[in-house]
Each structure stands twice: as C-alpha cells, then as structure tokens.
Amino acid sequence: MEKELLFKEISDNVVEMEEDIVEELCEKSLEMGIDPTETINKGLIDGMDRVSVLYEDGEYFLPEVLTASYALNVGIDVLKPHIKQEESSKRVKVVIGVVEGDTHDIGKNLVKIMSESGGFEVYDLGRDVPLDEFVTVAEEKECDFICMSTLMTTTMPGMRTVIEKLNEKNIRDKYKVLIGGGPVSQKFADEIGADAYTVDAAACVKKMKELKGV
Amino acid sequence: MIEKYLNGLEVPKDELTPIERMRLFDQGKEIDRIPCCLDTGETMAPLLGFSIKDYYHSAEKMCQLEEYLFENFRSDGAGLSTTLRGMAEAMGSEIRYFDDNIAQLKKPALTLRDIDNAKLVDVEKDGRLPIILEGLRMVKKKLGDKVSISGTVTGPFTVAAMVLGTEYLMMGMIKKPEKIKQLMEVIVENNNRYIQRLLDLGVGIGFADPVSSTALISLHQYQEFSLPYFQKNVDFIKKQGGGCGLHICGTSRALWESLNDTGIGTFGLDNVEDLTEAKAVLGSHMCIQGNVPPVEVMRLGTPQDVLRSARDCIKKAHDSKCGFVLTSGCQMPMHTPKENMLALMDAARIFGRYPLNKDLGEE
C-alpha cells in the first residue's frame, strides 16, 4: 500500500473512532518502514485535526472527540517506542492542568486534545494540581503557555496565586497565561491579570495560535 | 432607583406567605408578586458555620440550614437535594468529602466492562439516601405549613456519569451503546425507588441533570441515551398524580422542543440561555425559572448588580404563559453574600409586584 494512502486510512479511522483499525494500520506502517513521526503527523494528528473541525462545526460532540482521541492515543502508543530521536524543541509548548482542589477535568482534557492536534506540545499536569507545579514545569520545559482550568468558584483564587508566583519570580512576561472553566470569565481574567479567558477548547487553541502568530 | 436600594428605597412588603403564594400560583390564580426561589443547598452550610462534610452526613444540620434560610430570606421554596452524587454513591461510587468545599467523585462504581454489576439500591440503607430522606421528613415537619418543600433528584443521565465517570459514559455511548442503555434502566428503577419516598412524604420533585447539557452531548444523543429514561421517571411521578421540574446547567437550547412533550411542569434554565427564547419555546407548555448569573452576579456582584440582573429577567419572562419564577441560573456558590441573596428576594418584591410597573422601575 502506498504511504499516502495509508496515512489517509489512519486519519479516516481516527475520525471514525475505530481504535482497533488504527492500531493495525499503525503496526503496518512500521512494517513498511515508514518514519513513525511522519505517520503521527500525517495520519493520526491529521485525523484529530479533522475531528476538531467537526467539533467546532457542531457535527461532533464530546463523546466523539473523546473516543477519537482514544483511537489516536492507541496509535501513538504503537508508534512512540519507535521514534529514534527526541522531537525537535521548536514546537510551541503548553503546560496545562486543573488547579488545586478541583478534580473536574473534562474541559481541560478537551483543550489538551485539541492543542495537541493543533500542533502544540502539551505537558498535562492532570487535575488537583499543586499551584507551584504550574510554575515549576513551565520553567523546566520552557513552555510558552500556562493554561489553567477549574469548574468551582472555591478554587478560582488558585489561578490568581499562580500568576502572583510568576510575578514574584519576575518571570510573568515569559508566559502567556490562559484560563477557563464554568465559573471563570473575561472579567475574572482581567482582575487577576491573565492574558486571556476563552469560553471553550476550540477558542483556547485559536487564541494560543493568535498569540503566537502561528 | 436601584441606587437607592439599601439607602432609603422602600421595599414593598409581601402580602402572602410563601406557601399561600405558591399554592395560588400553582392554581394559576392571582398573587401579590412574582415568586422567587433561592437555589441553595450544601453551598450554604458555611452560613451556619457547618463543615460541608458534616452537613452532608447529618439530617439535623440539613434541617437547621433550611430553617435558617427560610427565617432569613423567606424564599418561596425549601428542600433538600440528593446532590449530583447522592444516587451514584448509593450505587457504589466513592465520593470525596471536604470540610470547606462541595464533594467530588473519587472513584466511579463501575467500568464499561462490569455494567452487569450495576446495583439496585436500598433507599433505606445505601449511601446518604436515608440521611437525606430523614432530613426531608424533618424539614417537612418544621416548615411544611409555611413553605412548599421539595426534594431534588438527579437526572438519570447525570447519575450514569457519576456511576461510570463522565468520560467513560461519553465513550460508552459510542462504543457500547447497549450496555449504557442497560445501565440507564437500572438507574431509572433506582430513581423511582427514591422518588416513591418523596411522593410518600408529600414533597415536590425537581430534577437536576447537568450532564445532559448540549455542552457535552448532541440532541440526538440526548434523545437516545438520556430523555427516554428521564421520561420513565417523569411518567412514574405523573402516574401517581405528582408533578416535577427540571434544571439543566449550561447550554440546553437544542433540547427544549423535546422537553415540551415530557409533561414536566417547570424548566429552570442556566444563565447562558435566554429567558425570552425560553418563553417563546417552552412558555406555553410549562413554567420557566431563571436565571440571574450565580457567579458573576450572585457571588461576585453587588446587591445593585443583583437588582439589575433580576429586573432584566423579570422584564423578559414576567408574561410567560405558564408562569415565571425568579431564581439564579444555577445553584448559588459558596460564600455568596447574604446581602445579594436578600437583594434577589427584594428584586421580586420591587420589580415583581403586581400590577407590574410597565417600565419596571427603569430610570
């Protein structure tokens, strides 16, 4: 089978959320000696990018995005061990997490999925993340963006604390800080000095691209 | 005028007690002002200095809080909720409790592989259900002659999210639709068992179903995985002569036409949706409730902000055919100022007083 055709089939099966077929096709790509990085970008990520578009257009909803993302990750698990060298560090890097005290992470996961398919390198700290960790990982991985999410009013002040920590260390300007989540608003973002609030995952990725000029 | 609130503006006194008002309202008769209900619950426990964890586990504390809220605010409704996790906990999900925050799902009861193990609950024994039922019994006894009491039940689809974990419910709908439907049937039965106790107690019934929001699922998915099971709960109530309401947090507009045929009596919309549109689509089928923003206005705004927002709500929905109840767009958060809660009640007294002032007090 031709390489390009295989990429298209992988991409199609991510869109169709068929993780078993994605797995088979990714194994096949290795047998054919195709560079796994190319398969990830032109097959898996291409498929996920199409999923993001379908989501933005209201054709796909959360169930489809999550299931497609699961298929994507099955493919990545097949290919990743065969990538010889570290990815180039040129990609825009994002550290993301749900702030301390909160475990509601669906919105955050959606941003992660859509950022990855948008070409960003994402460091996912998970949920209930100690506030220092946002700063530590951003510094360590030389990130461009710090993205924070919460669904509860009681944990919103944690976002302010992270920004204060950046200020204390005189590193606030190194990062763009984006925040989101049910109770969060542009007004709150202005109050705590975040760079942006976005209403959903698609808007967040769009905003990050805009801020980075990519 | 709004600027004079708390600074010389006279708030018209109520002429009816909350229970008189709601009885007449339910019969479609004339009342003194637009009804107003405070959407309270566990987030108000700090008002009495309770740890939220203690509140969740004590029928006495639940009842004390309802008494306190009624005495201080005289909302047109009182009651207790199973909370979004109460039924799931009874079905085996692990819940993490905090002294100073609302509870969160710690470990779902089931995975997509063991849905066959979904358990039927014993409402007298499982989880916190017996505590909440006891609390409701006490509230009914203490306040039942002063205000209408209701119990909030979690919508079956949201129960499923708390039993499986929301992400697994979402993926299960795609990968194992029949298994999800099998689980939904168990949840319908569990909800009915609980609902039967509420009917026996003679309290009203409301459903909260945030996971059915179109922020998560499509109309098609709602109609396949959520609505048919919700309908079974509604039918169970109606067959016994009861009525019920529904609140969906977040976006829900695409679902409204489907709700018109369910037979529910009330729909409470989130503040991200518009009351004018709700009046047009739902208004001739049911009472609508809403929708002052709970965070921006109730928690973070001033009493004047509350009055302004409430006035907008009243302007939009006061003439809705089957009635309008002023409330917040969702449960009010912890640390919502008491002044703002009073302002919401006062907004109904100032702007909702019949006959309504045509310009609704606009300057």
Summarize the entry for a quick read.
The complex is a heterodimer of chains A (214) and B (363). With 214 residues, chain A is of the alpha/beta class. Chain A has helices at residues 3-15, 19-31, 36-56, 62-79, 106-117, 131-140, 157-168, 186-192, 201-212, and strands spanning 93-98, 121-124, 145-149, 176-180, 196-197.
Description:
- The complex is a heterodimer of chains A (214) and B (363).
- Chain A is an alpha/beta fold and 214 residues long.
- Chain A folds into two domains: 3-82, Orthogonal Bundle (Methyltransferase, Methionine Synthase (B12-binding Domains), Chain A, domain 1); 93-212, Rossmann fold (3-Layer(aba) Sandwich), CATH 3.40.50.280.
- Chain A contains nine helices and five strands; from the N terminus they run H-H-H-H-E-H-E-H-E-H-E-H-E-H.
- Chain A has a five-stranded parallel β-sheet with strand order 2-1-3-4-5, with helices on both faces.
- Chain A is elongated and about 55 Å long.
- The relative contact order of chain A is 0.12.
- By secondary structure, chain B is of the alpha/beta class.
- Chain B has 14 helices and nine strands.
- Chain B has helices spanning 18-26, 52-56, 59-73, 86-90, 129-143, 156-164, 166-175, 177-201, 219-239, 256-259, 275-281, 294-299, 303-317, 338-351, and strands at 78-81, 94-96, 104-107, 149-154, 204-208, 244-248, 266-269, 287-292, 324-328.
- A seven-stranded parallel β-sheet of chain B has the order 1-4-5-6-7-8-9.
- The longest helix of chain B is centred in the middle third of the chain and has 25 residues, at 177-201.
- The interface between A and B is medium-sized, with 23 and 28 residues.
